[in-house]
């Protein structure tokens, strides 16, 4: 298994380009199967294990999918199978996003239940309640959720108990082909929801209000393939902002959209980091001394849970006591134990972590517990004394394109090595084998 070896102490300087957003491209690729005619051409697609997985889900349904040069082309105009087996859903929960499109187009879907994961139990009850409100019969059994409807789904008024990103997306896609109008209230407002709505509208859908808490969708009879470019990844951008800050560096993060990053920018500024808009990017300059702060994760436009562990790494270096409260996922503190191996001083109290900074971070062997934890441990390693070795990179490869390579280009002392100790690059392995290193299907 690959590991990333990082030696702390180097300042990061230079420019990096943000990739297309993982959390935008996955629902967009899922939505492409709504098109019964024409091909969708999706641009600015990041080369990630998750993209590979969603492509395999679609291929397994008999859709024609080609992924080359950061572009995914999907032709779903033939008759598709209406199933997504456990082997894909197990690797990536976002595979459940084919439920809504399949149900809307074929009146049937049979998708493996995602189950819990390292960050929480992550049920899909809100997705299913939405489909039921639109007239579907839903049966959960033998590890699968099977949904069917006679004729078309019917537009409905649906109130989400909480603003779930996945439920908003799944219901929005289903409603696009339903009969009549759907009003979705208390929905998620993330930029990725807006990107999906834009894609659907280009396909011929009628979606109004994405990005606000009420979305109205007037169902149409059919949708067609279109061209679309994915929005920049705000979490990748935020992660590199922390990388610049934690090393006292000076990095221009090109393509980053400051409007999508308001809560992250505001917390970095509170900690004494200089953040300036420059051209079509954001320049981040780390201070000599970081100040402590408090963060509470919330649905957008609150502070994103996907930046929680990276900010925790930064708070470890601040001079004073910081606190993080995680309100979105009930178990997203698995990385705390790993930080402790690096001599971090912190304690968990219920849904909060109290961080006593500055910790005298020491290099250590640590294991990534989830995708963002992987990045956070590497960030801490950039600051730690000596060598940090991060294992379980299958998590990292789900959401970061060549993370070690990009940090190295900014001046980090970092390598990714395989089990023989040979230096590897996940990008080139992908080109050669159609896999991302350490992620073999
Ligand atoms: C592929 C993708 O876009 N993933 C993102 C998406 O995940 P995902 O769409 O899974 O996250 P949700 O917004 O649905 O989950 C938020 C909260 O709602 C709960 N919930 C959700 C659905 C449901 O039916 N019932 C229920 O109780 C979840 O357990 C969680 O506590 O949004 C999360 C919250 O911003 C991000 O961390 C993930 O990176
Ligand atoms: C939790 C995340 O993703 P997913 O919902 O795909 O697990 C993430 O991107 O941090």
TrEMBL record:
Residue positions binding phosphoenolpyruvate: 22-23
InterPro entries in the record: Enolpyruvate_Tfrase_dom, Enolpyruvate_Tfrase_sf, MurA_subfamily, RNA3'P_cycl/enolpyr_Trfase_a/b, UDP_GlcNAc_COvinyl_MurA
Record pathway: Cell wall biogenesis; peptidoglycan biosynthesis
Cross-referenced Gene3D superfamilies: Enolpyruvate transferase domain
Pfam families: EPSP_synthase (PF00275)
Keyword tags: Cell cycle, Cell division, Cell shape, Cell wall biogenesis/degradation, Cytoplasm, Peptidoglycan synthesis, Pyruvate, Transferase
Catalysed reaction, written as an equation: phosphoenolpyruvate + UDP-N-acetyl-alpha-D-glucosamine = UDP-N-acetyl-3-O-(1-carboxyvinyl)-alpha-D-glucosamine + phosphate
Residue numbers carrying 2-(S-cysteinyl)pyruvic acid O-phosphothioketal: 117
GO cellular component: cytoplasm
Domain Enolpyruvate transferase: 6-407
GO biological process, one term: peptidoglycan biosynthetic process
One of the record's GO molecular function terms: UDP-N-acetylglucosamine 1-carboxyvinyltransferase activity
Active-site residues, record numbering mapped to chain: 117
Keyword Cell division set for record: yes
Binding-site positions, UDP-N-acetyl-alpha-D-glucosamine: 93, 122-126, 306, 328
Family designation: Belongs to the EPSP synthase family. MurA subfamily.
HAMAP family registered for this protein in UniProt: MurA
The protein's name: UDP-N-acetylglucosamine 1-carboxyvinyltransferase
Species this chain originates from: Ornithinibacillus halophilus
């Amino acid at each position: 298994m690959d590991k990333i070896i990082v030696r702390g102490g180097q300042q990061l300087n230079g420019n990096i380009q943000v990739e297309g957003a993982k959390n935008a491209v996955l629902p967009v690729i899922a939505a492409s199967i709504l098109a019964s005619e024409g091909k969708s051409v999706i641009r600015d697609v990041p080369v990630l294990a998750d993209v590979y997985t969603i492509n395999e889900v679609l291929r397994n349904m008999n859709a024609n999918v080609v992924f080359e040069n950061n572009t995914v082309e999907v032709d779903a105009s033939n008759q598709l199978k209406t199933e997504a087996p456990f082997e894909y859903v197990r690797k990536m929960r976002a595979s459940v996003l084919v439920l809504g499109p399949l149900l809307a187009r074929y009146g049937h879907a049979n998708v493996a239940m995602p189950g819990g994961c390292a960050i929480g139990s992550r049920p899909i009850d809100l997705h299913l309640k939405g489909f039921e409100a639109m007239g579907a019969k839903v049966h959960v059994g033998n590890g699968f959720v099977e949904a069917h409807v006679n004729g078309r789904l019917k537009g409905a008024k649906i109130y989400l108990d909480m603003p779930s990103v996945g439920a908003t997306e799944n219901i929005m896609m289903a409603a696009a082909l339903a009969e009549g109008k759907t009003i979705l209230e208390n929905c998620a407002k993330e930029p990725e929801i807006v990107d999906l709505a834009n894609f659907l509208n280009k396909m011929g859908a009628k979606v109004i209000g994405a990005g606000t808490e009420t979305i109205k969708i007037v169902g149409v009879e059919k949708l067609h393939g279109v061209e679309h470019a994915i929005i920049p990844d705000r979490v990748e951008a935020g992660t590199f902002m922390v990388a610049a800050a934690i090393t006292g560096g000076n990095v221009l993060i090109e393509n980053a959209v400051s409007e999508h990053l308001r809560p992250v920018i505001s917390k970095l500024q509170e900690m004494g980091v200089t953040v300036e808009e420059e051209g079509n990017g954001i320049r981040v300059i780390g201070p000599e001394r970081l100040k402590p702060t408090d963060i509470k994760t919330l649905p957008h436009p609150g502070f994103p849970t996907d930046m929680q562990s990276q900010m925790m790494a930064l708070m470890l270096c601040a001079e004073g006591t910081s606190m993080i409260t995680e309100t979105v996922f009930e178990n997203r503190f698995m990385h705390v134990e790993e930080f402790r191996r690096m001599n971090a001083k912190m304690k968990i109290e219920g849904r909060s972590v109290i961080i006593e900074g500055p910790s005298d971070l020491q290099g250590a062997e640590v294991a990534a517990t989830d995708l963002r934890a992987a990045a956070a441990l590497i960030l801490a390693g950039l600051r730690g004394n000596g060598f940090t070795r991060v294992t379980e990179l299958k998590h990292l490869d789900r959401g970061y394109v060549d993370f070690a390579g990009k940090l190295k280009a900014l001046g980090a002392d970092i390598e990714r090595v395989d089990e023989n100790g040979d230096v590897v690059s996940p990008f080139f392995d992908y080109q050669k084998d159609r896999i991302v290193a350490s992620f073999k299907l």
